[in-house]
Specification:
5 helices; Pseudouridine synthase; globular; alpha+beta
Length: 219
């Protein structure tokens, strides 16, 4: 688990796929526990990340910093950019997706609706096709809202489920139970210095990601 940034106020890790961010019913050791052992102190989660997803995860070292960063998330002042590999091209090379997501607690999925629906929350993201290999396509995604399984549900709703994401319609699971969604870049105002902090998480060292090597070198 690689550390991307560390200072007296916060730390950012590049989470591998398959590790839960916090304790769950599986009993597997969560990222938070591992990070606290490294730091030898209590850390505080600022945001969540699905277990099969990889990429930049932000942890605060004090409750005051956590509160400040949480407020930035609430006010949409933190930029979260993702990369996703899909099997089908979106209808356009780039665009904005707006859906209304309703969480199904029993199945732990979010259902996307095209129109406003009782109990559903508005979800919005921007996407852009970066390149294609023989079988797959690489998308850049910028989240404009933060909903449960938002990227997974919205891409599935337009017929472009993420590679390995059988929960949202992809035909085959990845061998390591990951999905090819990576929290690539995190940018925000540092709660102490006030300066913009921008951190990029290296992509997983896997064949399917390496297929987009030329695209990666241009990013």
């Amino acid at each position: 688990m690689k550390k991307l940034h560390d200072d007296p106020f916060l730390v950012i890790y590049n989470k591998p796929p398959g590790i839960p961010v916090q304790a769950d019913k599986t009993g597997d050791t969560p990222l938070l526990e591992i990070a606290e052992k490294y730091a030898k102190r209590t850390l505080h989660l600022v945001h969540r990340m699905d277990r099969p997803v990889s990429g930049a995860i932000l942890l605060a070292k004090t409750k005051a910093v956590m509160t400040a960063l949480t407020e930035q998330f609430k006010n949409r002042e933190i930029s979260k950019e993702y990369l996703a590999i899909v099997g089908q091209l979106p209808p356009q090379q780039e665009g904005t997706l707006v859906h209304f997501l309703r969480k199904n607690e029993a199945k732990n999925i979010s259902v996307a609706y095209a129109e406003e629906t009782p109990g559903a929350e508005r979800a919005e993201l921007k996407y852009r096709v970066l390149g294609s290999s023989d079988r797959y396509h690489l998308l850049h995604i910028q989240l404009l809202t933060g909903r449960h399984h938002q990227i997974r549900a919205q891409l599935s709703a337009i017929g472009c489920p993420i590679r390995g994401d059988v929960k949202y319609g992809f035909k085959r699971a990845n061998k390591n139970r990951s999905i090819d969604l990576h929290a690539w870049k995190l940018s925000f105002e540092h709660p102490h210095s006030g300066e913009t902090l921008s951190v990029t998480a290296p992509l997983p060292d896997e064949v399917v990601w390496k297929a987009f090597g030329e695209v990666r070198s241009e990013m």
